């Protein structure tokens, strides 16, 4: 499947490109290098109800929520007429059918858009690099997915999904702040957070995570873990300095240096199923055909806002090499090298950028579904079901 199929004539209006994530939505136009806006994926149905789109399970309420959400994107942020703009949707490969079908219904029936192209996130990420094969590690808000793609086809059976993602890191950070941090009050007294009624909201936790937290190198993390278990014979490494974070009013949250360092360790702790982020990558590769494994490991693409944390990529590389040398993996396949790609944009919107590139070519017309076809009963292409994927000849495979 060619990645680029010719540039659309400049006289045609640029398509609208949407990447509706579980936490944030990126919106903009085809052919642009960055999204115009990054907004929360929430909508206010009434004055007392602020909903996240992915938390709605009722079909009628979801239809209404998506309709209000897209209305704000078209008329408040992008300021375009929806009836003369094609739309490209960058979607998760394992999204729910209810959300997908409802989104399509809102676009085709309510907004009457002429054409919609659904692009899976891992395919869009590889389009930005113009490579046909790679393993895409998408660290989202509610889940982390590892999806191998070979010659433009996602290897569904080899994919890995785990709920350890940004939300789990924020919850871990909340627990660490409650147990280890202190608050400086207006009168100068300092008390432990656990002795107060402090309840940090998600936005504050996210701000603390982004501004102050980082991922330790593997050697340092192992030394800290060994000392906690009384297994080390050397002194533990010196903790990073603490930081004062102003809260509402005159209170100041004193964040201990160990909290800044330990918040992201949840990514690399082995759970009850003997799984962490590094083993997910190796398990995905191990389940791929043997002649694809070297290519995949030499084309690792990491996306998602959490991957922008300092030290994240270096730590993951060290963890992969460490686990690959263990008998459980070395006996199955040798890992000669692991290589990352330098992305042409920030990790949090790189999938959107791939959608913007694809929708700037004829792919949006050739591979998208027109409104006339939808109204005649033609079903959406389901990337997770091979039986629904159409060949260029129009026959099913």
Summarize the structure.
The chain has 397 residues and is of the alpha+beta class.
Q: How would you characterize this protein structure?
A:
This protein is of the alpha+beta class and about 400 residues long. The protein folds into three domains: about 15-125 and about 345-390, Nucleotidyltransferase, domain 5 (2-Layer Sandwich), CATH 3.30.420.40; about 135-165 and about 270-330, 2-Layer Sandwich (Nucleotidyltransferase, domain 5), CATH 3.30.420; about 165-265, no CATH class. Helix content is about 35%, strand content about 20%. The protein has a six-stranded mixed beta sheet with strand order 3-2-1-6-7-17, with helices on both faces. Helix 3 (about 120-125) packs across helix 12. The model is unreliable at about 1-10 and about 385-395 (pLDDT under 50).
């Amino acid at each position: 499947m060619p990645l680029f199929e010719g540039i659309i004539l400049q006289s045609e209006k640029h398509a609208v490109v949407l990447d509706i994530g579980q936490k944030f939505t990126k919106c903009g136009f085809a052919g642009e290098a960055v999204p115009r806006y990054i907004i929360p994926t929430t909508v206010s149905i009434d004055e007392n109800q602020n909903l996240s789109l992915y938390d709605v399970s009722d079909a009628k309420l979801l239809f209404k929520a998506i309709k209000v959400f897209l209305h704000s994107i078209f008329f408040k942020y992008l300021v375009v007429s929806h009836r003369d703009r094609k739309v490209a949707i960058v979607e998760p490969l394992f999204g729910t059918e209810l959300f997908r079908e409802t989104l399509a219904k809102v676009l085709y029936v309510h907004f009457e858009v002429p054409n919609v192209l659904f692009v899976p996130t891992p395919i869009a990420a590889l389009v930005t690099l113009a490579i046909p094969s790679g393993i895409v590690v998408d660290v989202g808000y509610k889940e982390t997915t590892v999806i191998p793609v070979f010659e433009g086809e996602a290897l569904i059976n080899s994919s890995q999904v785990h709920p350890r993602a940004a939300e789990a890191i924020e919850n871990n950070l909340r627990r660490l702040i409650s147990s280890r941090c202190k608050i400086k009050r207006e009168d100068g007294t300092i008390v432990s957070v656990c002795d107060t009624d402090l309840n940090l909201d998600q936005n504050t936790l996210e701000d603390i995570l982004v501004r102050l937290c980082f991922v330790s190198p593997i050697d340092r993390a192992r030394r800290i873990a060994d000392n906690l278990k009384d297994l080390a014979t050397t002194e533990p490494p010196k903790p990073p300095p603490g930081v004062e974070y102003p809260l509402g009013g005159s209170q100041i949250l004193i964040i201990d240096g160990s909290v800044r360092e330990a918040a992201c360790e949840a990514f690399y702790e082995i759970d009850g199923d003997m799984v962490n982020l590094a083993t997910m990558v190796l398990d995905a590769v191990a389940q791929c055909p043997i002649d694809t494994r070297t290519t995949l490991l030499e084309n690792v693409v990491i996306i998602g806002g959490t991957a922008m944390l300092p030290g994240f990529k270096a730590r993951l590389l060290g963890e992969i090499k460490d686990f690959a040398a263990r008998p459980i993996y070395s006996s199955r396949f040798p890992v000669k090298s692991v290589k990352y790609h330098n992305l042409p944009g920030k990790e949090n919107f790189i999938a959107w950028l791939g959608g913007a590139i694809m929708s700037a070519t004829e792919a949006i017309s050739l591979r998208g579904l027109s409104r006339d076809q939808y109204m005649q009963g033609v079903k959406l292409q389901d990337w997770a079901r091979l039986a629904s994927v159409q060949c260029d000849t129009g026959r099913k495979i």
